[in-house]
Specification:
Layout: H1 21-38, H2 59-80, H3 87-107, H4 115-130, H5 138-149, H6 162-170, H7 174-180, H8 184-199, H9 204-216, H10 222-245, H11 252-268, H12 273-289
Helix pairs in contact: 1-2, 1-4, 1-12, 2-3, 2-4, 3-4, 4-5, 4-12, 6-10, 8-9, 8-12, 9-10, 9-12, 10-11
Length: 298
């Protein structure tokens, strides 16, 4: 397996297209993470302007992280080829996922840049590799990912995550619940918004920002709840909905309200990381369904 790039460089892994479907899926996954990170201006999140509400992340760190986990996505896809959702596959993916988390932490010098994304995109990469039909739909991939996620990981003691703490305190389901429901915020919200905005001739940046906002306005984001409680979640949901109500980020009023939302989240010191991960998942499934070899730049 290819080793992750060193933290002293951010040179991407650029595989040739004849290296197989597993490598292509991993490449699309890491590109989706980078596209999400580079999208600007995002409220509270790392983007081209800076670190957002984070003190330990930057755009260069987010790129390092994406490059570091890409080989592990490739391995997830490779072990999934020719398989069906099963206990054995779930536990194999979990093992690779833990290796990916260690690679991420090494590349970022201890910052948690993409732990949730490793879970989300790992499942979707694996589910994509399971598909044997040429005309595969995002909904089919999400359904397969749901089936994989339904199996428990028995290989290691279950560690308590930030998401688990929030789930217990607030009764929300987090990233695991999203997977177990078949990624509704991606399939039913993210992808339809992205494609509707494109159909209306929005720029790709506007289409992606509006997709992020559509997810934010509906998602019980555990990243927001963990850092800022219900106050932060309400501020994010209402602020995102306010941008949507005036036509989105492509309008003058929308840009003004988006700027206000950004300032509010920075004041609260919170970042909608769960929504960012689901935007990356949306971009990944969009590229897979459209049979793209790379994620379009914004």
């Amino acid at each position: 397996m290819r080793t992750a790039p060193s933290s002293s460089t951010i040179a991407p892994w650029c595989p040739s297209l004849d290296q197989g479907p597993a490598v292509r899926l991993a490449y699309l996954a890491s590109q989706s993470l980078i596209a999400e990170a580079e999208l600007t201006p995002k409220p509270g999140l790392v983007d081209r302007r800076g670190a957002g509400a984070h003190s330990d992340l930057s755009l260069s760190i987010m790129k390092l992280s994406a490059f570091a986990v890409e080989p592990y996505f490739s391995e997830m896809a490779f072990v999934s080829e020719g398989c069906h959702p099963s206990q054995a596959l779930r536990e194999r993916l979990a093992l690779i996922g833990r290796d990916a988390e260690r690679a991420m932490l090494k590349a970022t010098k201890g910052s948690n840049s993409h732990k949730g994304a490793i879970w989300i995109l790992g499942l979707l990469v694996s589910a994509s590799a399971l598909q044997v039909h040429d005309e595969v739909k995002a909904s089919q991939i999400a359904a397969a990912a749901k089936e994989i996620a339904s199996f428990a990981d028995r290989a290691t003691p279950r560690l308590v995550s930030h998401g688990d703490i929030v789930t217990k305190k607030y009764g929300v389901t987090g990233a695991r619940g999203e997977a177990l429901r078949g990624f509704p915020h991606v399939v039913d919200i993210g992808l339809p918004t992205l494609r509707a905005k494109r159909a209306k001739c929005a720029t790709e940046s506007v289409a992606r920002l509006d997709t992020l906002l559509s997810i934010m306005s509906r998602l019980d984001d555990t990243c927001l709840l963990y850092r800022g409680g219900e106050k932060a979640l309400v501020a994010a949901k209402e602020g995102a909905a306010a941008v949507e109500e005036v036509g989105g980020s492509g309008t003058a009023s929308g840009r003004q309200k988006l700027s206000h939302l950004d300032r509010r989240l920075l004041e609260l010191g919170v970042s909608p990381g769960g929504s960012g991960d689901l935007l990356a998942a949306t971009l990944f499934l969009d590229a897979v369904e459209r049979k793209q070899d790379e994620v379009q730049a914004d």
